[in-house]
Amino acid sequence: MKSHLDKLLDIVQQDVGSRGLAKLPDNLISRSHGDFKKACESLAKGTGVVIFTGFYIPTGTPPAPETDGPPGALFIARTLASLGRKVTITCEKNCMTAFAASLQHLGMIDKIQLVESPMETAIGYAQSFFSQLKQITGDVSHFIAIEKCGPSHDLESISLQDRHSFLNSSAESSRGKILTMGGKDITSHTAPVHLCFEEQFCYANNIIRIGIGDGGNEIGMGKIPWNVIAANINNGANIACSTTVDHLIVAGVSNWGGYALGTGLLQSTSNSSLSMLDSQAEWEILKLMVEQGGLIDGRLGQKVASVDGIDWKIHSEIIQSLVCASKETL
């Protein structure tokens, strides 16, 4: 019999956008099995949390961060704040207005901290930025990356057994770059926060890393072997992210993964009744992030209140299913 957490995960792992999350028997979903439960249970024991998000779409009209990621990040943050946890959201400057407007709308401007991610890649980037985050957040137990793109594999990160295939199937120009699913290089538009997720750095600072993604090019997908992403995801050989995490959550849409994590966190702390997940509320936040924050639909490339080109009715159905599944625990 499936647990309540398994039921939540099943709801959000529907591949509505046909990304190829489970194209083959050995896939992104099977390779991350068990991680969702571990992420929820770990987060339930956590203290301060930093959430990283913001994904730049260079082909948009105009180019801007996308609507997938920020709403899910905000829901996780709201959930943590409702449990009395210290939480900080960090993103690039071009995404700050969307969060500021949303926090103002929710009356949570003083409960959730907002920090701009530094763009400069300098020696000691991770330690310098972490010191800044600690001053604001206090003790930090978890980093969460949701729909946050990280660098693709290069010859240093690829396994020896995959090296021959990697050399033959990946473009040399794409290696070690931060890429969209279509292979567009957005390295210069993306803060190098993946450096904060390096295993040795997080281990030394007692930080648990959680990644949420839906396409293979996000921070955390490095936990899945390159050859698995290459085989399942279109253009996966080029875009597969090399940055790993402790617990990886694969979802059909990254926002859905954020909704599931927040809901699962409440279940893991026996606080299901505190859930603030509501379709209408999420719709209003999405519109605000687009109208006042300038976010765009990443797949359509337009400043419209939609996510990944998927009709809001489907997002609403996912949210309602999560709410219903959560109520089953009461």
Output the strand order for the largest sheet: 5-4-1-6-7-8
Query: Could you tell me the number of beta strands?
Result: 8
Q: N-to-C terminal Cα separation, in Å?
A: 18 Å
> What sequence of helices (H) and strands (E) makes up the elements?
HHHEEEHEHEHEHHEHHEHHH
* Structural Rg: 18 Å
**Overall residue-averaged pLDDT value:** 95
The name of the CATH superfamily reads TON_0340
Percent helix, as a range, is 25-40%
| CATH class category label | Alpha Beta
CATH architecture: Alpha-Beta Complex
- Biggest sheet record: 6 strands, parallel
Q: How many domains make up the coordinates? A: 1
Low-confidence stretches: none
At the third CATH level, what is the topology name? inorganic pyrophosphatase (n-terminal core)
Descriptive key words:
single chain, 330 residues, alpha/beta, inorganic pyrophosphatase (n-terminal core), six-stranded parallel sheet, two-stranded antiparallel ribbon, 8 strands
Quick overview of this protein structure:
The protein is an alpha/beta fold and 330 residues long.
What does this protein structure show overall?
- The mean pLDDT is 95.
- The chain is globular and about 50 Å long.
- Strand 2 and strand 3 (64-65) form a beta hairpin.
- The chain has 13 helices and eight strands.
- A six-stranded parallel β-sheet has the order 5-4-1-6-7-8, with helices on both faces.
- Helices cover 40% and strands 11% of the residues.
- By secondary structure, the protein is α/β, with parallel strands linked by helices.
- The relative contact order is 0.21.
- Helix 1 runs antiparallel to helix 11, helix 1 (4-12) runs antiparallel to helix 13 (312-327) and helix 11 packs parallel to helix 13.
- The chain has a single domain, classed as TON_0340 (inorganic pyrophosphatase (n-terminal core)), CATH 3.90.1640.
- The longest helix is centred in the C-terminal third of the chain and has 16 residues, at 312-327.
